[in-house]
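note to self: dont lose this again. the chain is below, predicted strucutre after it. 613 aa total, dont forget to put it in the shared folder this time
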Amino acid sequence: MKNTITNDSVRNVAIIAHVDHGKTTLVDAMFRQGGVFRDNQEVSDRVMDSMDLERERGITIAAKNCAVRWGDRKINIIDTPGHADFGGEVERSLSMANGAILLVDASEGPLPQTRFVLKKTLEAGLKVIVVVNKIDRKDARADEVLNEIYDLFIDLDANDAQLEFPVLYAIGREGVAMRELEDPRENLTPLFETIIEQIPGPSYNPEEPFQMLVADLSYSDYLGRLAVGRVFHGTAHNNDALACIGADGKAKTLKVSKLQTYDGLQLRETKEAQPGDIVVISGIEDVVIGDTICTRDNPRALKRINVDEPTVSMRFSINTSPLVGQEGKLVQSSKIRERLQKEMLRNVAIRVEDSEERDSFIVKGRGEFQMAIIVEQMRREGFELTVGRPEVIYREIDGKIHEPIEQLFIDCDEAFMGVVTEKLAVRKGRMTNLINHGTGRIRMEFSVPSRGLIGYRDEFLTDTKGTGIMNSLFAGYEPHRGEFPTRFTGSLVADRAGVAVAYALFNLEPRGELFTTPGQPIYEGMIVGEHNRDNDIDVNPAKGKKLTNMRASGKDEAVTLTPVRPMTLERAIHFVREDEVVEVTPQSIRLRKAVLSAMERHRIFGKKKKEGM
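---
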């Protein structure tokens, strides 16, 4: 670019890593030492995880912006998610950054999501600082992990400049960083200094007009829609007349009502948007992520943010059960559509389409965990809806059906190798690598169809007694590997409406695991338990004990039921089959048949059986 100038007063840095490697904890420490908080200010841990779901689950779901000051320079920090299902958040975040801090656990080393986020960072041409975190762990192996990181860079075709990355060692929880392992553990000064030295300031052409790429959206009750992004060229001021260029290439006029920049966790009003800074503009309602905000006189669009295509779809529908409207406020299909469209605006990895059925929508995304998070957010907002089983999105390539394939990494005790291999073989998985260091734990790599992993995580934790670690990475599309059973058990289906009775549930316990507790309302077609065998059976959980005026010794003891495992949203989504759905309300998660009438279900089954003959 001609006449390029660097804005040395700003650094834009994304923090990337695998889930649970300490990104948000490190940002907390940077806040404390960067002067964002007062010395005596009480601050909660993981302050960047502002959503309730993030705090409950201990993960970052949405990328967030903040800023700290170090000397006379401002460092804009973008905290990104570490879970593979939220890869779209990472991709849009990198559009605002000039460099990245790659955080790697000193014991676990580079894991699948480390590979994914680093691949995107190298493709964007960003400068990378490697931080080996948690070096205080008893099982830390910093030198080996550093060699694994070099191998990963080489494997991802990093160029010579990218391979010469600076390395720091850190304990994010204690807020210390060192250039060498033997250095004294004092504070994060080495990290701040490395950011200033190694990450280039944003460059711009002073002759170019104002251009800003929208990388995030927010909303204010007072200001309306807020567009968040990095200024690539030029400056803008309050009340400036600008234009917004959408995906269609057409420019829509807008007037800047307010300009804000990040200062710590807060937004501060500013009079001028400087080149390279991350700013928040209000004054436009019709804007989506990837749009370019520029001058009206010389409207020119920047390259749009591109994200990987969705691999999983799920059907969202209105609630049609007999208990509809009793627990939620928002039950109409128009409200559900409006909420899903709003989600699509903020989440670049989500697609929403109308289905052939009325009052149903097909939502496409990266994985079933991402879908579960959307459903959980909706139920907390007062929605009632039903969702189907996640289904993978197939592609036709050269006349053949191809399906998404995952690269699966499993870390477990050696004793569980047999059961894990057996279960994955049934799901058409193929082992590609096995590492055994003789420590009692092994690391296995598999190539598995994405549909084979839907519902497997719960089984895996049971099989490994909760000690196994499972991570996956999307590896591309391969020819369809054939059918396999998704579930080896059937369902216990209520055959009438009523209230569950302890006497009836006690007599149903030998049939399988129950999901229902006494006093819970039931209806025809509701799934009250998992059948031991592979077929569905209709049962009556509301059946009471026949009473007489005769008393008999030993016949009137209190019924003792086996405690019921609470039904979580993920477990419910993984459990249901093609003819079943999950009914989600703000207070309850119920499983039910898509067709509630037992007579209608038997008729459909008989028709299919006849066609199969």
